[in-house]
Automatic annotation (TrEMBL):
Keywords, alphabetical: Coiled coil, Exocytosis, Transport
One Gene Ontology cellular component annotation held by this UniProt entry: exocyst
Domain of life where this protein originates: Eukaryota
Organism of provenance: Zostera marina (Eelgrass)
Domain Exocyst complex component Sec10 N-terminal: 94-210
Protein name: Exocyst complex component 5
Entry keyword DNA repair: no
Length: 822
């Protein structure tokens, strides 16, 4: 083993090489490889040592394994005996240590070699860098020289190019001058031919007679004509008056050229017509192109438009258009039929023009100009003629009868015609009409009608209003010729004002259609809405006045049957019966007027809603229009409110007259006195109270059914105050016993329960005070002073009641209360 250990280090080869340090180098990997290469030999030696001490599964000198395979723990003495000399756990460590030392030495040698090589490489790099710098400097000098050479070459090329361009310009100018000179010579030759003698066109060059060169001949003729006319014009400006005209010969040329141009133009137009009949669009386009040199082709354009079928037999076309729109009945054919006829006619016109536009686009050099002429001719001839027969402006002095449509028919026809004409202008605009202002042309057809439109609209609304009032009056007379009240009720209906509003809405729609700008629209709307305000105000005010007449008649009838006390029973009974009839008439008139006020309120609400939803926004563009309309509407509503207020006051007077009649006829002196026959007092409400409350309950039902809001509250408050005053006046006529005072208090309670439905605090308070004052009839005379002292605010009114006590004098109440009143 010792010999093997000693021979092992010398057997280790030198394993380091310079290539091992190239690339991704790691010392950990290097030494790991060295150790892994030596480990197998070390493991083999360890196994040899172990195999020498084991025999047949038994360890010599008391080993650990017995022959039977059973193990046992060795003793400490045996363990010491078997150990012998110490064996290193890693016996090759010395060899590895030597190997590492050799490796470090070799690494040092390799490092020195590398440093040397690096030093040599640095020297070589420095030498090469110096050579490279010199080469770059030489190259830069060469490049600068090349740039300078290129700059000189570019300058030379630019100079040569400019020279060539100048030469080219001179050559082009010379060629142009040569060509111009050649053309001028030809033109002068042609001019001399035309200047020979007036009307002599037989000796002209073949150019002017060759049909294949018509375009060239036309161009030359136009140039000659322009030159001759300009020369004559300039000469006339420069030569003084009276001097001989040296250019007189060119006048002959101008005459001959004009004659030739006319002949050539007629020839071309004839050829154009022939090609048009054959629908030879190519020839037509050729002729149109040549004719465009004569007055910009206006003759060809006009000739083409004039030869359209619709312009050949004008009268027949116009009659056909009128028959299509109006039929056999004329203006009475109906608005829907007129609208349908206009739509059909304008579609036909648009279709015809659309067909022509396809031909015009292929034939004429300037199709938009031809379309302008065609469309303008159609509008001025067909549309204008039709509108002249359709829009017959009525006289504002003698309006046409409403059975024939009245002014409204004219306005509706104007509106539908204008609407359809606007649609026509939009359709024609899509066909391409150049600079033609189609909208302005259509607008000009309606200027006369739009200027007087507001006056006709006002006349129409007034005519409708008069006819409606006559219709209502006739219906009222037919239903009941004797009853004016019924007539009034029928005229003030909730269905009439909505009809006025519908008329106005119809008029406003025409305003929107016929008004060209927002300011004009606002002005027209203001005028039309003022008509509605006038109609509503007159209708409601007149209706209220007529219903109020029935109240006046009932009052006159009531006053007619007021009789004195010294009459017979028969006369008194007849008068009472007549008074009952008058009272019934008054109650009916009251109901009619309150219902009329209700209808007025509903109508005013409809008017205000219509203004808010429709009129208000249309007035905003015009300064002050909205405020002015609001003021006018306020005045109209105020006039209706004033009429309603006066009528409601008269209604209250009618109610109170009936209350007074009932009290005077039903209230007896014995109602508030102790019975003379010794019977028990009656503490039920008096007959007068029952009848008055019953009557007033019917009145209250009508009020709650017909009035609302402030109208109802104001009416009930005034009625409560009048009732309080009337009852006080009635009770002043009687004397009261204590039992009568209790019955009076029962009546006051009934009246108080009734007026509590008014929801009027001031009225409730007055009737509560009445109940308190009724106590002055109930308490003993000696208790009156304490009662008055407890109610100082009603002391004055209570004294009036106290004087009505039946024991006022006998109990000397005045002297008893003198100190309290003082």
């Amino acid at each position: 083993m010792a010999s093997r250990k000693s021979s092992k280090p010398s057997a280790l080869p030198i394993i380091l090489n310079l290539d091992d340090f190239k690339g991704d180098f790691s010392f950990d990997k290097l030494f790991g490889d060295l150790v892994n290469n030596l480990l197998p030999s070390f493991q083999e030696e360890s196994l040899d040592l172990l195999s020498d001490g084991v025999i047949g599964g038994q360890l010599h000198s008391d080993g650990l394994v017995t022959g039977g395979g059973h193990s046992r723990m060795p003793s400490e003495s045996n363990l010491k005996l078997t150990q012998g000399p110490a064996i290193p756990f890693f016996p090759e460590v010395d060899a590895l240590l030597n190997l590492f030392k050799d490796s470090c030495k070799e690494l040092g040698d390799l490092s020195n070699q590398i440093d040397g090589k690096l030093h040599n490489l640095k020297k070589d790099v420095s030498v090469q860098d110096s050579k490279h710098r010199k080469t770059l400097a030489q190259l830069e000098k060469g490049v600068d020289g090349l740039f300078q050479s290129f700059a000189r070459l570019d300058s030379r090329i630019s100079s040569v190019g400019q020279t060539a361009a100048k030469i080219g310009d001179h050559l082009q100018s010379a060629d142009s001058q040569r060509e111009t000179a050649s053309q001028t010579i030809d033109l002068i030759k042609y001019l001399m031919e035309f200047n020979s003698s007036p009307g002599d066109l037989m000796e002209l060059s073949p150019l002017f007679s060759d049909d294949s060169r018509v375009a060239e001949a036309a161009s030359v003729a136009q140039k000659l004509r322009s030159f001759a006319e300009d020369d004559i014009g300039m000469h006339d400006m420069n030569v003084p008056d009276g001097t001989a005209n040296a250019s007189r010969g060119l006048e002959v040329a101008v005459i001959n050229l004009q004659e030739y141009c006319n002949e050539l133009e007629n020839r071309l137009l004839a050829r154009f017509d022939a090609a048009s009949q054959k629908k030879d669009l190519l020839t037509m386009a050729e002729c149109a192109k040549i004719l465009s040199q004569f007055n910009r082709g206006s003759s060809a354009m006009q000739h083409y438009v004039n030869t359209r079928k619709m312009f050949i037999d004008v009268e027949e076309v116009v009659n056909s258009d009128v028959k299509l729109v109006l039929g056999d009945q004329g203006l009475q054919t109906g608005l829907s039929n007129i609208s349908r006829g206009l739509s059909t006619l304008f579609r036909e016109i648009t279709g015809t023009i659309r067909k022509d536009s396809s031909i015009i686009t292929e034939v004429f050099p300037s199709p938009s100009d031809v379309m302008s002429i065609l469309v303008q001719r159609v509008i001025e001839q067909r549309v204008t003629t039709l509108l002249d027969k359709l829009l017959v402006k009525p006289s504002l002095v003698n309006l046409p009868p409403l059975v024939e449509g009245g002014v409204l028919l004219y306005l509706r026809i104007v509106a539908v015609s204008y609407d359809k004409a606007q649609e026509l202008s939009k359709d024609l605009r899509t066909l391409g009409c150049g600079d033609l202002d189609i909208e302005g042309l259509i607008e000009s057809l309606f200027i006369a009608h739009k200027d007087e439109y507001p006056e006709h609209e006002q006349a129409s609304l007034r005519q409708l209003y008069r006819a409606k009032m006559e219709e209502l009056h006739a219906e009222a007379l037919q239903s009941d010729p004797r009853s004016k009240a019924n007539s009034s009720q029928q005229q003030i209906s909730v269905n009439i004002v909505p009809e006025f509003v519908r008329w106005n809405e119809d008029a406003i729609s025409r305003c929107i259609l016929l008004s060209s700008d927002p300011h004009r629209l606002a002005a027209n709307v203001k005028i039309v809405f003022a008509c509605l305000l006038d109609q509503v105000s007159r209708y409601l005010t007149d209706g209220l006045e007529r219903v109020k007449e029935s109240l006046n008649e009932a009052a006159a009838l009531r006053d007619k049957f007021i009789i004195g006390t010294s009459v017979s029973r028969r006369v008194a009974a007849a008068a009472a019966s007549a008074a009952e009839a008058a009272a019934l008439a008054g109650e009916n008139s009251f109901k009619l007027f309150v219902v009329a006020v209700q209808h007025c309120s509903s109508s005013i609400a409809i008017l205000q809603q219509y203004f808010s939803n429709t009129i208000s926004r249309l007035l905003l563009p015009m300064d002050g229009a909205h405020a002015a309309c609001c003021e006018e509407m306020g005045n109209s509503v105020s006039s209706v409110e004033n009429a309603a207020y006066k009528g409601l006051i008269q209604c209250i007077e009618t109610v109170m007259a009936e209350v007074e009649r009932l009290l005077s006829s039903e209230q007896k002196a014995s109602d508030y006195r102790t019975p003379d026959d010794g019977s028990l007092p009656d503490y039920r409400p008096t007959t007068a109270c029952i009848r008055v409350v019953d009557y007033l309950s019917r009145v209250l039902d009508v009020i709650f059914t017909s009035l609302e809001g402030l109208n109802k509250q104001s009416f009930l408050t005034e009625l409560g105050n009048r009732l309080h005053k009337g009852l006080l006046s009635n009770w002043q006529k009687f004397t009261f016993s204590p039992s009568g005072g209790l019955r009076l208090k029962r009546d006051i309670t009934e009246y108080g329960e009734y007026v509590r439905c008014f929801n009027a605090p001031t009225v409730d308070e007055k009737f509560e005070l009445l109940g308190i004052m009724a106590n002055v009839f109930i308490v003993a005379p000696e208790s009156l002073s304490s009662l008055l002292e407890g109610t100082p605010n009603m002391r004055k009114d209570a004294m009036k009641f106290i004087q009505l006590r039946d024991d006022y004098k006998s109990a000397k109440i005045s002297s008893r209360l003198s100190t309290v009143m003082a």
